UniProtKB/TrEMBL annotation, chains A, B:
GO annotation, biological process: carbon fixation
Molecular function per GO: magnesium ion binding; ribulose-bisphosphate carboxylase activity
Ribulose bisphosphate carboxylase large subunit C-terminal domain sequence ranges: 118-352
Organism: Ensifer oleiphilus
Name of the featured protein: Transcriptional regulator
InterPro entries linked: RuBisCO, RuBisCO_lsu_C, RuBisCO_lsu_C_sf, RuBisCO_lsu_N_sf
Highest taxon above the source species: Bacteria
Length: 372, 372
């Protein structure tokens, strides 16, 4: 028998009998996808078919149960997307079903070496100790590369550790990718030379499958300090592929664009901590952006804290990464944020700084308040 | 001004004022992602910023409004993923918001040439006229390539037009991709030679970004009759890239694995017709698999019919594709299915046939019943 990994699902059900029937259905659906009575005896039934390992009332008080189902590493076949497909492929389409947690096995940990840098590597790159990291975004789409580079310069001079592209900046004619990359790396370098900082520029390389990998190489060769990818758009394997590539050395920032439906509905998709925490680490992201509580989105403080915890928990292998809450951060909220997240966090601050006529000073004020 | 495309969103709201505020927020969030008061005057405000074009009470009686928002082709920058990002990137994370429809513009149609074959091409390949197509899946994972090829042979001899891999078959040691591909193409070829049919084998090529394209070429060179991809796992650009590649000539079947959260929640994600119909055509899929009503999933007859309609509607460019409902099909349901779908459909029939000890005869009975 091959080692098995486990997935724990919240299953809406009126009683235990219904929950058990639904759980056994998941075990079939996610593996053999044929009626139970025609599952071949022997290897397929004993090894490949999912096994219901435990079934308990939902500890969070939802109207259902937690079903823990184990799957064989043999079914994964060394394929990261097939791993995700076993976790939640077809069952994602069934209502009242949510992935709560994933319990790893040795083979899955070998398949998912995790991020190259993690929070420790990002801090080292930024030249700081055990304090929060800060990241800003240049925007909006429609500005020229020169205008965007000026913003990158100002954020860097103001002390931001990372300056990233807005996730909507791709290769628009107003600011083509290669031109913006060169201009922003230069601008951040100038600011570092002037101010003595170690800011890094992080371009958005989300693009078609082939272009994404070309842009990753361009970013590395141009002297960028990381790359950003939206995995829910570009595919759940691209970060995994880049993080596993020994020739690619930059940190990877994961952006949540297009991922919302996987999380916001209380009874479908994934738990917040599993999607924005565990999955990001398994893919190999070094920083996971998600919407902060109290901002423009509806996540609660507890949901955000559960993500931060999942970024740092001992997974038996992958390095701790940095949770990067975006939205809703400003000077006045620094104490509240410190209370919620402690030091192991990267604050993503964009719009609030652009509302100031002096981006450099506005950045400095927030950098100082956070470091205090 | 560049031409604009429009997206119509269902917006949950207590009254028109709230709906308008939420709609204007979408227009900001999906384009400039900065506070309204700092949107640069001129090109950014006039061209890039989303525009609220219409706001009406939801015609389907849900507690909210339909907001139609237009976006500039300039913001897309010729990038298919950026197009999807504008449609629903960050706003996917906001609850009570659903993409209902997308209204195309000339530039988007140029970016999305659509499928190469469509339903007409699939029928031509199968050698049939205006009747329903039939597809079966070889499974389960864990069988050897020889055993799976035997099933492929029997389905083909029984008259199925397409025989596909189960979407969980990748490169497991029990049936490595290359070995299974060769064995199944051979087996289906033998059955065609014996029975006079024109069945095609369709391997699952969902894999890491680089392997997926290698397997597409392998499939074409080996004589497969199509490929299957799960875009919600592999990324929303891979089908688009393959369908746009003049050197790749096989039909593409889209599988819904991992996509469920985008659709099943009534107030998040996409409408059924938009996700499993319109988006699949824009990507360039020739056939779109989705869960049939009355099967193991919860879609209603009306939702399934709306998908089928969206596969065939005049979009101003992309060919009509074939809706491929899976699950719940058997001999007894043929009249009900004919009534729901008419002729422009591809029935995906798997488990029910495997429950028969004689797959060839079981396939023949369903093929005859559907063609009658």
């Amino acid at each position: 028998m091959a080692p098995r990994f486990t997935v724990s699902y919240y299953v809406r059900a009126a009683d235990e009998a219904e929950a058990r029937a639904r759980a056994l259905d998941i075990a079939l659906e996610q593996t053999v996808e044929i009626p139970r009575d025609v599952v071949p005896k022997g290897y397929v039934e004993d090894e490949i078919l999912g096994k219901l390992e435990a079934l308990v009332k939902d500890p969070d008080g939802r109207p259902g149960y937690l079903a823990s189902i184990s799957y064989s590493e043999d079914d994964v076949g060394g394929d990261f997307l097939q791993f995700l497909n076993i976790v939640f492929g077809n069952s994602s389409i069934k209502p009242g079903l949510k992935v709560e947690n994933i319990g790893l096995s040795k083979g899955i940990l070998a398949l998912c070496p995790g991020p190259k840098h993690g929070i420790a590597g990002l801090r080292q790159r930024a030249g700081i100790g055990a304090q929060p990291l800060l990241m800003s975004a240049i925007k909006p789409v429609g500005l020229s590369s020169a205008e965007l580079a000026q913003r990158a310069h100002d954020f860097a001079l103001g002390g931001m550790h990372f300056v990233k592209d807005d996730h909507g900046l791709v290769d628009q004619r107003t600011s083509p990718f290669a031109e913006r990359l060169a201009a922003c790396v230069d601008a951040v370098g100038d600011a570092n030379a002037k101010g003595g900082g170690q800011a890094s520029f992080v371009p958005n390389i989300t693009a078609s499958a082939k272009e994404l990998f070309e842009r990753a190489i361009m970013a590395q060769e141009a002297g960028a300090g990381g790359v950003m990818i939206s995995p829910a758009l570009a595919g759940y394997d691209v970060i995994h592929t880049l993080a596993s590539d020994p020739d690619f050395t930059l940190p990877i920032v994961s952006h949540p664009a297009f991922s919302g439906a996987n999380v916001v509905s209380p009874e479908t998709g994934f738990s917040h901590r599993c999607f924005y925490g565990a999955l990001q680490r398994l893919m190999g992201a070094d920083a996971a952006i998600y919407p902060n509580f109290g901002g423009r989105f509806g996540f609660t403080r507890e949901e955000c804290q559960s993500i931060a915890k999942a970024c740092a928990d001992d997974m038996g292998g992958p390095k701790a990464i940095v949770p990067a809450p975006g939205g809703g951060m400003n000077l006045g909220r620094v104490p509240e944020m410190r209370d919620a997240y402690g030091n192991d966090v990267m604050y993503l601050i964009g719009g609030a700084l652009l509302q100031d006529t002096d981006i450099v000073s506005a950045s400095r004020r927030i950098v100082e308040a956070v470091a205090r």
